[in-house]
Amino acid sequence: MNLPPRTECDADVNAISIEEALDRIQSRLPRLERHEIISCSDALGRITASKVHSPISVPPFRASAMDGYALRVSEAGSSLIVEGRSYAGHPGLDAISYGACQRITTGARVPDDADAVVQQENVKIDGDTILINKQPKVGLNIRLPGSDSQQGDELLESGTRIGAAQVALLAAHGIDKINVHRQIHVAVFSTGDELVSPPDSLQPGQIYDANRSLLIALLSNPAIRISDLGICKDSKADIQNILEQASDADLVISSGGVSVGDADHVRAVLEQSGRVDLWKIAMKPGRPLTFGFSKPSQAFFGLPGNPVSAALTALLFVKPAIRSMLDMESLRSPKLQLPLASDIFKLPGRVEYQRAVICKNDEGAWQVSTTGLQDSHVLSSLNKANCLIELPIESAGGQIGDIVQVIPFTHFAEAQLQ
Ligand code: AMP
Ligand code: MG
Fold first, then answer.
1. Among residues 238, 218, 134, 222, which one has the least CA distance to residue 178?
2. How far apart, in whole angstroms, are the C-alpha atoms of residue 122 and residue 136?
3. Closest Cα to atom 14, ligand 1: which residue?
4. How far is the CA of 291 from the centre of ligand 1 (A)?
5. What is the predicted pLDDT for the residue at 7?
6. Strand partners, 295
7. CA-CA distance, 214 to 218, in Å (whole number)?
């Protein structure tokens, strides 16, 4: 591969790092204060707004972990008469006579007199009596009360996304109502005189609006309510008008019109009505990013117009911002380290994300391969990708076999916000 001379550089002295942009955004974002109490059966995907404590101990009683016989270990050496039974949901008597044991099933209450359960496979049955093959230890096959959680324990932290495990945990503790953050209300619009929506046909110079569909899809989540505000013309009046329609949104996201071209009015409108910072970020794609407030309690992101830049900045900045507004911890998923399947070109100076796919080579070893043209308007290479290769600022590309950092899309998978 013909790498460019090492002196070539893509750096911009005015650009800030991704980390610095994230810090600035985090430090300025408001937290969403509004909560609501909802039924746990409606809570999947919602975010807890306070800690949840256990109202009971689980298991609530000493329970058998096996089908077998409850007995006193001190008597396990001799044959024992089977006396009574304790089935799940049908506890037997607590008392066991001397020289006796009780038939028991998994999940049934262990009689207070018993200190072990011997599983039925380890027992020889002879009429009404049993003989134990192997001497049990005290506590064998007994689940202690509170061994999962004690009454009063913290079950869920505030800011936890309620998934299947959390729904099960709440149900196991008899909890049917939960305090969650109200859905964060996000308003989305596209800017550009050239944009039309399907099924309208394209007139000369027009393109279809991809970004609104993209952003709505990326943010579709039970914790988020999305208002689709459509396409906004490149005029200050139209932008002002659309912001008025978004007046009860917690967060407004636009795309396009944030550079310094003649038709880029988003910044000017925001400066009039709120405050705005336009940053160049040392990343590719997605160098210009606008963040600010369209009014005091309404955060605003103006994403770049090219669809892949909009996608990258939404994943890297908007999603973490929403997590932070919902009081959730930032994502700390590990990146993968994989060898490159082919050479890749890059100039030093910015962090670069290349659309790629994790696949196996002929020997069956995992590697990563770019998916085609990497320009920021090219959605077809995003379609084929299942990950991003992250090349650090100083990187000057890579050669086949070089180990690179890879971020699988599942990392962001938050229809999931996890
Ligand atoms: P802008 O930042 O408005 O100058 O847009 C940069 C590039 O992205 C231009 O080629 C626009 O036509 C394109 N673009 C802007 N918005 C969208 C959109 N919503 N969908 C697809 N392409 C867009
Ligand atoms: Mg534009």
1. 222
2. 10
3. 305
4. 18
5. 53
6. 298
7. 6
Counting ligand 1 atoms within 8 A of each CB, the residue from 215, 377, 379 with the most, and so the one to mutate, is 377
Residue nearest to atom 11 of ligand 1 (CA): 305
Q: How many helices (H) and strands (E) does the chain have?
A: 8, 26
CATH, domain 63-143, list 2.170.190.11, 3.40.1180.10, 1.10.8.60, 3.90.170.10? 2.170.190.11
User: Atom 6 of ligand 1 has which residue's CA nearest to it?
Assistant: 305
Q: Quick one: three-class SS letters along 401-417?
A: CCEEEEEEHHHCCCCCC
Q: 128: CA distance to ligand 1 center in Å?
A: 82
36-57+147-181 homologous superfamily: Molybdopterin biosynthesis moea protein, domain 2 (3.90.105.10)
Share of the chain above pLDDT 90, in %: 84
Q: Which residue among 255, 258, 262, 290 is best mutated to probe the pocket of ligand 1, counting the most ligand atoms within 8 A of its Cβ?
A: 255
Position in ligand 1 atom list of the atom nearest CA 309: 8
Nearest listed ligand to the Cα of residue 233: 2
CA 311 / ligand 2 centre spacing (Å): 16
Q: Which residues contact 120 (CB under 8 A, 6 or more apart)?
A: 66, 67, 68, 69
pLDDT digits (tens, 9 = 90+) for 201-240: 999 999 999 999 999 999 999 999 999 999 999 999 999 9
Query: Whose atoms come closest to the Cα of 195: which ligand?
Result: 1
pLDDT the model gives residue 415: 41
Q: What are the residue boundaries of the structural domains of the chain, listed by start?
A: 18-35+183-325, 36-57+147-181, 63-143, 336-414
Reported as a single tens digit per residue, the pLDDT across 141-179 is 999 999 999 999 999 999 999 999 999 999 999 999 999
Nearest by Cα to 253 from 210, 221, 209, 292: 292
In angstroms, the Cα distances linking 337 to 162, 340, 358, 386 are 30, 10, 11, 15
Report whether 290 contacts 267 (CB < 8 A).
yes
Instruction: Give the Å distance between the CA of 375 and the centre of ligand 2.
Output: 17
CA 367 / ligand 2 centre spacing (Å): 37
Ligand positioned closest to the Cα atom of 190: 1
Q: Where are the beta strands (DSSP E) in 26-67?
A: 35-39, 52-53, 63-64
Q: pLDDT under 70 in the chain at which residues?
A: 1-7, 332, 413-418
- Report the pocket of ligand 1 as residue ranges, CB < 6 Å: 190, 192, 194-195, 207, 209-211, 255-259, 261, 304-307
